[in-house]
Amino acid sequence: MAALGFERFSVVGHDRGGRVAYRMALDHPDVVERLSVLNVIPTVEQFERMTPDTALGYWPFIFLAQPPPFAERVISQSAEYVLRDILTSWPASPDAISSEATEHYRRGFTPERIPGICAEYRASFHIDRQMDAEDRDAGLKIRCPVLVHWGSEEPALADSLEVWRRWADSVEGGSLPSGHFIPEEAPEELLASLRRFLSG
């Protein structure tokens, strides 16, 4: 962002992008003016709240965190099956992601990119979780206003506002009518909320 000429800016992130976004707000509070996170809670909290009732739904956090090349080899043998399962079971409706978008994802789900997907989950388990725990123990908080949204069909995230209020002083938001893929499933509602929030 500095290279593009922006000294301060707002950031919005979904899923892993949300994890990158809130770490940016924690690590660089002088540059992030406003933060919006979609369908995530802090990584350490995600791991701490896993129970037998929720663990199966969050299989990527454990499976993809295995030492390489285990997950990479398994996924590479059935990449299209894994992708299509995610794109039909994570949204509120199995046909929420268009065939055109699905094909776009399929073309990107290549042997060259699969290691990167696994690496980011590995980082969540081995790096992000520890960094979050250290920051929480130190009382570090996000200083900018935070907008939080989660899918109404994601019951495990229903207390997202309560969770994020432990990490920031100014938090607002709510659920949107979707499953995991909020930008694709509830684009109008999300856009309206972001426009209001980002305009200050």
Please tell me about this protein's structure.
It is a single chain. With 200 residues, this protein is of the alpha/beta class. The protein contains 10 helices and 4 strands. The chain has a 4-stranded parallel beta sheet, sandwiched between helices. Helix 1 links the parallel strand 1 and strand 2. The longest helix has 24 residues.
* Strand order across the largest sheet: 1-2-3-4
Radius of gyration (Å): 17 Å
Distance between the termini: 20 Å
The number of helical runs is: 10
How much helicity do the residues have? Answer: 40-55%
SSE pattern, N- to C-terminal: EHEHHHHHHEHEHH
| Structural classification | alpha/beta
Q: Give the overall shape.
A: globular
Unreliable runs, pLDDT <50, ≥5 residues?
none
Quick rundown:
The chain has about 200 residues and is an alpha/beta fold. The protein is about 50% helix and about 10% strand.
What key attributes describe this structure?
alpha/beta, 4 strands, 200 residues
Mind sketching the topology for me?
Blueprint lengths: L8 E6 L1 H12 L4 E7 L4 H6 L10 H5 L6 H8 L1 H11 L9 H10 L5 H24 L8 E6 L8 H5 L6 E6 L5 H4 L1 H12 L2
